[in-house]
Specification:
Elements: H1 2-26, H2 38-44, H3 47-55, H4 65-90, H5 96-120
Helix pairs in contact: 1-5, 2-4, 3-4, 4-5
Length: 131
């Protein structure tokens, strides 16, 4: 039952994060949809870690290059997702208020993605690998 509560709370967090992203785009004051390019970053961010989990054998406790590369690529994607709205705002493509809403949505969505891997990342009976 704890897995269902975690899944519901994670889906609620994702919905709140996407709401902030949509508010940064669709409010009549801002009315620019350039921040929707961040959806690509949301989709791409867990992919390197998921690939490294499939490739790497987790029996040894030492660090390995594949896992470190996946964490590096994921960090680059996340930093790029935070940098893109700031670049848009500095170039006057979007307003600074829209940038703040989009950055708030970034924090919530990436916290939700992190929470998903913390809750469902272990190799127990209720794992995301079953899906």
């Amino acid at each position: 039952m704890a897995g269902i509560k975690a899944l519901i709370s994670l889906s609620f967090g994702g919905a709140i994060g996407l709401m902030f992203l949509m508010l940064g785009c669709a409010l009549p004051v801002y009315n620019k949809y350039w921040p929707l390019f961040l959806l690509f970053f949301y989709i791409l961010s867990p992919i390197p870690y998921c690939i490294s989990r499939r490739v790497v054998d987790d029996t040894d406790s030492a660090s390995n290059a594949c896992k470190e590369l996946a964490i590096f690529l994921t960090t680059g994607i996340v930093v790029s997702a935070f940098g893109l709205p700031v670049i848009f705002a500095r170039a006057a493509v979007i307003e600074w208020g829209a940038c703040a809403l989009v950055l708030t949505g970034n924090i919530v969505i990436f916290a939700t993605i992190l929470g998903f891997f913390l809750v469902f990342g272990s190799n127990d009976d209720f794992s995301w690998q079953q899906w």
